[in-house]
Each structure stands twice: as structure tokens, then as C-alpha cells.
Specification:
Layout: E1 2-7, H1 36-43, E2 53-57, H2 59-68, E3 77-79, H3 86-100, E4 105-110, E5 113-115, H4 118-132, E6 137-142, E7 153-159, E8 169-175, H5 180-189, E9 192-202, H6 203-213, H7 215-225, H8 233-243, H9 249-254, E10 260-265, E11 269-271, H10 275-281, E12 290-292, E13 296-299, E14 302-307, E15 313-316, E16 319-325, E17 330-334, H11 342-350
Parallel strand pairs: 1-2, 1-4, 2-3, 6-10, 12-14, 13-15, 14-16
Antiparallel strand pairs: 4-9, 5-11, 6-9, 7-8, 7-9, 8-10, 16-17
């Protein structure tokens, strides 16, 4: 059967100070009235019912998400002991889903993506599920609109049979976050897509790639599968985590996978990984400003994002800026530095300001 897995374990430090460890960005309403996690889960309806939606996250976030989408079964929450990038999280989740449904094909998604074209997204998933039946790992590729150095790229190879009106290609090569001059050549050649981080595969195919490329971790997962539902599970999980590679799914299996296909899609996609990416998708005034959360008066201001709490905020003479006002912290940042917000978070961590993290 077809399943979906939502990866929802990230801390969202580049959306500080709104995103915190006790209220990560996935649990916040940033683009619409529903939270990002709710949007991600309900976006799958009716293609994938909630009883076949799985979530891999940590225990603290799981408690939040269970209140936001109560119809996802409790058994579908897969708890990772600690953060080790998303490669081990995917391996753990594939093991659990395959245990429950040995024939499962799963779409691996994240909780922080904006997708504006839901119907087109469903069509792409249907096509990808079908291609995956031939033991391919399928990725949805986003047509690049500028030479981004923040996304990975997928080079398309030979064409495969089209599905649901969508072109399908063999994936020739993955390139992770290239330099600008390389990204410019990728944009110009028309053969590359952005790596969306959305992958569709049979669980057993994905686990086979872990066996081939991360054998020690895969062996631990195989032992763990035999303990699911038993008192021995906790120790088996820790044993698996002790040998888990701290790698993204791209580095753990995707770059070396044997059978990979890519479907280029136009689904109005954005990775909400920073205040700049959020500004791109929020409704804006004639000067390119986006305001949300409360009252803002802007004079001679352009291309600026302001998020307020309860206070009235007035700004004048600003350009390309981000202002985020919360009850206990205020961020004022140049738009071209929002990718570096982790420096602020790290400084707060060094100064042991846990109250602000």
C-alpha cells in the first residue's frame, strides 16, 4: 500500500526567535492559519489517509503534533532518540513501516515545505508511486528559477516512460549545494532540477540501499525490527543509534543509490528554511513588504518582513530587512544575513541562555 512519512524533527534555528526548541517551526502557523505540520498532513488528503501517514520526530515534538493532528494513529509516531541528521531517521522509519506493511511504498516528505499547487502535487505523487513499483527510488525535482547555492541539484539522464502526463527521467547525478558559477551553468543547461528532498520508494528498496551503503547501521536496524513491540526494543534502538551515521538521506543513500528516477514538477514549491524564503511566499504590499502577526506602520520601507506579537511596530526608511518581535526577544537583521542566524543561536547556547533557545 501507499504510505507517507513526514520528517518533523528539525529545530528551525534559522527562524529564530519565533522558532524555539519548545515550539519549533513545524508547530507554528507561518503561511496560513494552520501550522506547518497540519498543512503537511492534511495536504496529503485524500490521496493518503491519515491512518497511513507516519511521523518521525523526537518525543517532545511528537507530543505537540499529536494535539495538532489527532487522527494520525499514535502507533504511527516513530521517535528518534537524538538528532543525527535525517538519514538515520529515515532508516528507522522505513524499518517500522516495513514491519507493519512489508509491501509498503512510502513518500518521504518534510514538514517545512510550502506547496501551493496541491492538485499537481497529488499527480506527481501518483506518478512517483507508480515508478517506484519498478524498484526505483523516485525524487521530485523542482525546476530552478535562479542559480541557488543553497539547494542540491539533480542532473537528468535518459527519459523513461511518462506517467500521468509527467516526464520521468533516470537521475544521472546528485550535486550538493554548488558554488554560484556552477549553479549558473546548471540553470543554463536545462538538465538540472533542484533536489526537493522528497523521495518515494518501496520501504524494502530503501532498506536495501542502507544495507549496501551503511551496512553496520542496517544490520542494527534488522535486529531492531525483531524487537518492535517488545521490551527489548528500547535497548535495540539505542544500539542502532550508537552506530547510526550522522548523515543526511542524500549522503547516506541517495547519492550512491543504484536505481534513481527524477520527475520534474511545477508545484509552487518552497523550502521554508529562513526568513528570506518566508518573505518570498507571503502576500506583499506594493513595496514588497510582508507583515504578519499584528499592527505595523511602514513609511519609505521596501522588501522587508515584519512579524509582530502584541506590540504596535512602526518602521521608517528600511530596505531588505527582517524584524521579528516576540514577547522575550527582538530580531533586527539584514535580509542578506538571515542564513547566518545560527550564529546568534550558537552564541546564546555558549552563553547558556536556554531561556531564549
Amino acid at each position: 500500500m501507499y504510505h507517507a512519512l513526514i520528517m518533523a524533527g528539525g529545530s528551525g534555528t534559522r527562524l529564530w526567535p519565533l522558532s524555539r526548541k519548545d515550539r519549533p517551526k513545524q508547530s507554528l502557523a507561518l503561511v496560513e492559519e494552520r501550522t506547518m505540520f497540519q498543512v503537511t498532513a492534511y495536504r496529503l488528503q485524500p490521496l493518503i489517509p491519515l491512518e497511513r501517514v507516519h511521523v518521525v520526530t523526537n518525543a517532545q515534538m511528537a507530543a505537540i503534533f499529536k494535539t495538532q493532528v489527532p487522527d494520525i494513529p499514535e502507533a504511527n509516531y516513530i521517535i528518534e532518540p537524538s538528532a543525527k541528521d535525517n538519514g538515520p531517521a529515515v532508516g528507522l522509519a522505513l524499518t517500522h513501516i516495513a514491519y507493519a506493511d512489508p509491501d509498503a511504498t512510502v513518500a518521504i516528505l518534510t514538514a517545512d515545505h510550502h506547496i501551493g499547487k496541491t492538485a499537481e502535487f497529488h499527480m506527481a505523487l501518483q506518478a512517483a508511486y507508480e515508478v517506484a513499483q519498478d524498484d526505483y527510488i523516485v525524487t521530485l525535482g523542482i525546476m530552478p528559477t535562479y542559480p541557488s547555492t543553497g539547494f542540491g541539484y539533480i542532473e537528468r539522464g535518459d527519459a523513461m516512460e511518462a506517467r500521468h502526463g509527467l516526464h520521468v527521467f533516470h537521475a544521472r547525478r546528485f550535486t550538493e549545494k554548488p558554488k554560484r558559477e556552477v549553479a549558473e551553468t546548471y540553470l543554463a543547461d536545462g538538465r538540472h532540477s533542484w533536489n526537493s528532498g522528497m523521495f518515494i520508494m518501496k520501504c524494502r528498496v530503501g532498506l536495501r540501499e542502507f544495507q549496501r551503503q551503511q551496512p553496520e547501521f542496517a544490520a542494527a536496524l534488522a535486529r531492531l525490527e525483531m524487537t518492535i513491540g517488545s521490551p527489548a526494543y528500547k535497548d535495540a534502538l539505542q544500539d542502532a543509534w550508537d552506530v547510526a551515521p550522522k548523515k543526511s538521506i542524500d549522503y547516506a543513500i541517495m547519492e550512491g543509490a543504484e536505481r534513481v528516477a527524477v520527475i520534474p514538477v511545477d508545484i509552487d514549491w518552497s523550502d521554508i528554511g529562513s526568513w528570506a524564503s518566508l518573505l518570498d511566499i507571503l502576500p506583499k504590499d506594493a513595496q514588497g513588504n510582508a507583515f504578519f502577526g499584528g499592527q505595523v506602520l511602514a513609511i519609505e520601507t521596501s522588501n522587508t518582513l515584519v512579524r509582530t506579537s502584541d506590540r504596535f511596530v512602526a518602521i521608517m526608511g528600511l530596505k531588505d530587512a527582517v524584524i521579528v518581535d516576540t514577547p522575550d526577544a527582538l530580531l533586527v537583521c539584514s535580509l542578506d544575513r538571515v542564513a547566518d542566524l545560527k550564529q546568534i543561536v550558537e552564541r546564546l547556547r555558549q552563553e547558556r541562555r536556554d531561556d531564549l533557545l
